[in-house]
Design goal:
By secondary structure, the protein is α+β, with helices and mostly antiparallel strands. Among the domains are: 2-64, Up-down Bundle (Monooxygenase); 503-524 and 546-591, no CATH class. Strands 24-25-26-33-30-29-28-27 form an eight-stranded mixed β-sheet. Strands 2-36-35-34 form a four-stranded antiparallel β-sheet, with no helix packed on it. The longest helix has 36 residues, at 467-502. The protein is globular and about 110 Å long. It starts with a helix and ends with a strand. Residues 363-367, 397-406, 528-556 and 585-640 have low confidence and may be disordered.
Amino acid sequence: MANLLALPDEILTQILSALSAVEILQSQLICFKLNSVIKSSTEIQYLIALQIAGLEDNGERSILSQAERLERLQRGQLAWRQWKPQFTQKIEVKQPANPIYDLSGGAYFLGRESMLDLDFAVLPDSEGDVQDWRSISVKETVLDVGLCIDEHDLVVVVTRKPVASQPPLLDIALHPMQYSTGQPHPLALHPRISVFKDQHPHPAVGLEIVGENLVLIVSHRPDQMADATEDRVLVYEWRTGILKMSLAAPYRSYSGLIFLDEHTLMLPNTKRGILEVWVLPRSPTEPSPSAPMCALELPLLAPGRSFAELSCRSEPNPIGERSPTPHTTKPTKRQHRPYKANTEDAIIVFNVRIQPVQTGPNPLLVVGFSHTYTFFVHRKSILRILHEQKRDEKPHIDIDFPSNSVLFPKPVPWEQWGPKATRWIETDDIPTRWITTTSGQRAVLISSAAANQQGSGSPIITVDFNEARVKKVGHQLAQKQRKEREKEERRRKLVASRLEREHSELVQKFRECKEWVERIENQLGDIKASSSSEPTLAPRGATLDLSLPLELDDWPPLNGADIELVKSFLEQHSELGEQIENPASPLPEVDQDTNTNGLLLDELSDSPDSDQESDSDDDAGISLESPSGGADRQNAKARYARVWCLATAQVVDRAGVCFHSPVVSELACLGYTSKKQYHFDGVLIDDERILGVTTSSADDRIKKFEVFYFG
C-alpha cells in the first residue's frame, strides 16, 4: 500500500480512472492521500459524474476541456432534476405537415403535406439560435423515415411508387440520404433500393438502422383482405443494398422493433403476446434463423381480450462495432458534444393497446372499449435475461428449418422476468400516439387533458429510471423521513411540556381523575359501576372499596369521590385529554427544513465532493410514492410534490378488465414535475431537450412546438 501511495498523483489518477464510480468512492474512504487525489482530480470527478448520469465521454470529438465538460454536465443534470430549462424557444412549422415525424440526433423531422418531401428543424442548443429549417426531397411518395444521424450521418427515406402492372402494384423502396447535405449518402452503393412490390396503397412501415444493418417492417392497416395479408421483416446491408434476412408472419404480428445490439433484434409479436429476440446474420452468406433465439412472455390477457397494438422505441440505438466516427461532409455542433447516452442503460418504452376479441363476420367489428398501458424496461435488463438463457440452454441441431419449426423456443414466463424488470402505468388518459417519448433513461409524459385549451392545462412529468439516481434520492428520502419522525417526537414533547407549564393544576387533576377511574373500572371488570352510594354486588371472592380504592397517601384529593362526578369532569375536559394523549397542536417552527408540499430535497449533488455546486431546489417537494397512491393526506402532498420517488411495487388493472390477473411491476424511478401547466397535444424528448407539440384542431396536424432545453 505504501508503494502505491508513493506514486505520483498523475499515475494514481490514471489507476483510479480505470475503476467504476462506486469503486472510486470506496477508495476515497481508504486514506487521506487517495481522498485528496480523487477530490482534486477533474478527470476523476468527470468520470464519476458521467457514470452516475448514465453517460459516456464523446472522446476527441469534443473541443472542450475536461473541466468545461464537467461544468456543462453538472449544469445540465441540475436543470433536468429541478425541471428548470436553461432556455425555451417556440418554433412555428412553416409548411403544412403530414403525420410522418421522427426525433433523433438533435433534429425534428416532419413529413410535408405533399408527401414528396421531408422538412426537419435543427433544434437549438444555445439561447438565441436562429431556427434552421432544411428539407430532403426524393420525388416519390414518402411512407416513413429512419434516422441514424449520430452513427452514420444517415437518413433513410421509405417511399412507394406505382408500377404499371395488372393488378396495380406499388414499388416500396429505400433511399439512403446524407443528413448533413440532403444528398444521396456517399457510402451507399445504390441511391435507391427496391424492396418489393405491394398491392396495398397504405402500408405501415417501421425502420431502424444500427451498424451495417437496416431492418424494415412492413405491415398493413385493417381492410377486407386483412386475413390474407402477411407482415414482412426485411434485413438489409444499407451500404450494399443486399438482403440478408427475410421473415413473413401472419397479419398484425409485428409493428415495431428494437435493436438490443448490432446483431440482436427484438420484435414484439402482437399475435402471440410475446417479445421475440432474433439473432441477425452477420453477412448475406450466413444462413438466416427460422426461429427466435429467445421469447419473453407478456402478462396473460383476460378471456375475450387481445393485443391490438404493441409499439416500442428506445433512444439512442446501439452503435456498430465498425462505426467509430460518422462519415460527415459538414461537421455539426452536435458531433462536438462532450458526452452521449449509454445505449445499454437506455430504457425501452412499449405502448400496449388491449381490445376485446373481434367477433362476427366483419373482422373489423370490435365490441367494447380498448385500454392502453405503457411499460418501461432497461435494454440491459433484456440483454441480461438473454445471457442467462444462453448460459442455461441445451445445445440443439441445425436451426435452418421452415418457419413452423418445432424448435421455436419455449417463452420465458412473465413472472420469471417481468415484474422486477419493468414499470407499468395506465395510459388511457395519456396521449400515446407519440412514440418518441424516451431518451436515455428518461421518459416524458403529459395528460390528455392538456390539449383542452379551455382548461387549466397539465404539468409535464419527466420520469428518470437512472438506478444510481434512484438509490441516492431514496437514501436521502429515508433520511428526510427520519428527521420528520424526530421532529414530530420533539413536537409532542414540546406540546406536553407546554401543557404542563400552562395548565399544571388542571393537567395534574385530569391525570389523577383519569387514572383513578381506570383503576376502579379494572377492579369492577364487567360490572357497571353505580353512581349511587348503595352497595354494589361484586363477583364472588372479590373485595371492592369504592370510596377509597387506593391508599390514602396516593390519592388524597379523591378520597370518597363519586365516580360519576369524576367521569363528568373528564368529559368536560376531553380536548385536554386528546392533547395529553396525542399532542399535535401547532407550535412555533423548530426548524425550517419542511414544506407543506412534502419533504424537501435539500441537496441532489452528483459530485462526491460536498464543496461542489449544490443542486438544491427550495421549491421541490418529494414523495415516496407517485401522485396516485397513499392515504388522503399523502395524496394531497403527492399532488403538489415536484419530485417523487416510486420505489415499491405497483399494480395496474387491479379489477382484471384486461389481464388475467393484476400486473405487478417494481422497476424504481423518480418523477420530476414542472411547476407550470401547459396546453400541449403531446410531449417528445431527446437527450438534451423536451418538445411540447401543438396540433391544429381542424386536421390534427402539427402547427408549432416549444423547445425546453436542459442540456
